[in-house]
Amino acid sequence: MQFQRFEDIKAWQESRILVSLIFKYFSDLRDFDFKRQLFRATLSTMNNIAEGYERRSNKEFAQFLFISKGSCGEVRSMMYAAMDLGFINQAQFDEVYNQSILLSKITSGLIKFIRNS
């Protein structure tokens, strides 16, 4: 692996931005079940990158990246529900959606890189 620490990984950095956006827009949400699921999925994007990297095995790292990418899709899906339910507006949806697409693409690239190493 070419990273010194998980904090150096671009996918982790972008997932940290996604986490910040979600907490910014949903911290005051009173639908606690929805909020809990959304926060868990969002934190999963970041934490699975870190955990996979710390395993020090390319095979395990790739597996954790797949989990992170799946959680990113879950966040994106929940954004549609959040907008449909009136929890966020179009501009907020677009910001989170675009960040999640960026994260998903970067994670896919990292998976390909790790699998070919």
Secondary-structure blueprint of this entry?
Layout: H1 10-26, H2 32-54, H3 58-84, H4 90-116
Describe this structure in words.
It is a single chain. This protein has a single domain (6-116), classed as de novo design (two linked rop proteins) (Up-down Bundle), CATH 1.20.1440.60. Helices cover 80% and strands 0% of the residues. It contains four helices and no strands. The chain has helices spanning 10-26, 32-54, 58-84, 90-116. Helix 1 (10-26) runs antiparallel to helix 4 (90-116) and helix 2 (32-54) packs antiparallel against helix 3 (58-84). The termini are close together.
What's the number of structural domains? 1
CATH architecture: Up-down Bundle
Question: Any idea of the CATH class?
Answer: Mainly Alpha
Indicate the structural class.
mainly alpha
* Number of separate helices: 4
CA gyration radius, whole angstroms: 14 Å
The low-confidence runs, each spanning 5 or more residues with pLDDT under 50, are: none
Shape: elongated
Q: Could you please say which CATH topology applies here?
A: de novo design (two linked rop proteins)
Mean pLDDT: 96
Query: What is the makeup of the main sheet?
Result: none
Strand runs, count: 0
Query: What portion of residues is helical?
Result: over 70%
Q: What's the name of the CATH homologous superfamily?
A: 23S rRNA-intervening sequence
Which band does the percent of strand residues land in? under 5%
Distance between the termini: 8 Å
Topology as H/E string?
A: HHHH
